[in-house]
Amino acid sequence: MARVYNFSAGPAVLPEEVLKEAADEMLDYKGSGQSVMEMSHRSKVYDAIIKEAEKDLRDLLNIPDNYKVLFLQGGASQFFAEVPMNLMKNKKAGYIITGQWAKKAFAEAKIYGEAVELASSADKTFSYIPDCSDLPITDDMDYVYICENNTIYGTKYKTLPNTKGKLLVSDVSSCFLSEPMDVTKYGVVYGGVQKNIGPAGVVIAIIREDLITDDVLTGTPTMLKWKTQSDNDSLYNTPPCYNIYICGKVFKWIKKMGGLSAMKEHNEKKAKILYDFLDESKMFKGTVRKEDRSLMNVPFVTDSEELNAKFIKEAAEAGFVNLKGHRTVGGMRASIYNAMPIEGVEKLVEFMREFEKKNA
Ligand code: PLP
Which residues are involved in binding pyridoxal 5'-phosphate (predicted)? Predict the structure, then answer.
């Protein structure tokens, strides 16, 4: 059966090569006579898998030794709570509100302390990244929080906010490993893997070591304390072994593709094809301020709901699936993560061009 071009925002398309390799190893992983799904997380063979995954991730992102890499569970949504639980010593933090995911993290932080809105782009349906050069950050704030790539609205920070010396915490779920990043600019970087890296069920957190302490908010469950996870090298309890194994394969695939600089080039090329078309089309329009456009998530609209629905239906019939925009935005959204081939975007644009001609 032919594979479709999958533009889902997540879970999302994974490299075919990785899926095939995993299928080949399904019944017998490297002569162990078992699937990775079946083996003990305390076994030597699994230990090698998780250690190698961490090593490859460290290579890709050039992660310094004073940062811990944790493979966690609970999705990015659970991490929204883990951030204040582990970091809110003064019970105060600043949040920049650039969409639903930042809003959810903000709401979660309010359960644990005083979360302050530092800036927001809600006034224009989150279609831009607010000016973050002079935010009302106060000395008593424990950290500044951002959602770096806004999956639903298709915006991305091109420069990080001026945090006035405060710790930066960033949700990079939908731009993880799509381009190089300087980990040392952050206290904590984290993301769910189900977009660029692997199957849902793993959150990767990269945390500066001095932030991992026993000094957490009273009532923090053992599992959600970073110190617990760090002391046990992400093996405090049974981790999502198979999913971490797939993440490891994707890290190797990215390395083979030339690493993160090559990935960035590949993603820029892809995004340009789509954005250039949106800029010239009379029917389809991008919804995001040009300078804040994401390389990963591209929302667009026509001026009629009927036409949007017709487009989504006919596109799916032609093998371009999951193009419906998020329920809070409407219209369309093409998520073009690392594993989406250039040809997928070229063919989508060809299809859009034809659709425009036929329906003008
Ligand atoms: N943060 C961002 C930027 C996301 O795109 C998503 C999900 O799409 C989440 C957080 C929530 O992730 P999860 O479903 O793993 O909780």
Answer: 76-77, 101, 151, 171, 194, 237-238
